[in-house]
TrEMBL record:
Phylogenetic lineage: Bacteria, Bacillati, Actinomycetota, Actinomycetes, Micromonosporales
Keywords: Membrane, Transmembrane, Transmembrane helix
Domain of life: Bacteria
Keyword Membrane applies: yes
Gene source species: Micromonospora noduli
Transmembrane intervals: 27-47, 90-112, 152-172, 178-197, 238-261
Name used for this protein in its record: Uncharacterized protein
Amino acid sequence: MTSTATRPRGARARAAIAAKTLRTDRWWFAPLITVIGLSAWVAYATVRVFQHDNYWVDAYHYLTPFYSPCVTDRCVEAASHFGRFLPGWWIIPDAALTLPFLLLFRLTCYYYRKAYYRSFWLSPPACAVPDGHKEYGGETRFPLLGQNLHRYFFYAAAIISLINTWDAILAFHSPKGFGFGLGNIILVLNVVMLWAYTISCHSCRHIIGGRLKHFSKHPVRYKAWTFVSALNVRHMQLAWITLGTLALADFYIMALAAGWFSDLRFIN
Ligand code: FES
């Protein structure tokens, strides 16, 4: 039985039921699919980040988001829009300036927290299914106390989305000047989805519309808050969609850079 010391305030002790859970539906499916999906994505991203190759298509100025901005002295000069000031050691990602913040932004995201608490920590794996741990401390102690820093990682993520947007604009390039191909569609799609995910953040919603007593006195902020709130409802979907668009953009550019196939060009 849960002790009063570890039970959330106001919660009652669990009824004395011998069965682990009375649920008969496939409650384990969501945690399982989350573990598979997140593990596969992290494995792919880790391999790509430390590959240090096939991240730039010189003819069309395509740069994969996994290497943006490219800041080590190993980076191709044309792909280094912010300089090459870090040493090109194998252990240092070429986008070392941004990747840690992106990782922390996702790691502390309200949706991802729910996802990995349930699936990796089984805390709890689903509603009406017991916690996989004897104690429950919530996010009141180190290291989970750090989840409160999410609002600051939001600001970093917004700046990084601006950088990705700049990359997508620069990619409208061809050896003849302006150019447009399938790679552009993929990069723009990725950037639009990244903005949708970033703006739909719960912290963003609070920054835009929080601490106001009267919405009627702040019509612009109210409009913005209404827009963000509509996106916020889809935050979980956007979290997964952006994992997909990031992987797609990276894979497509890797394939072009490796010469597996050519870009489908519409103009130049
Ligand atoms: S809550 Fe998910 S990104 Fe902020």
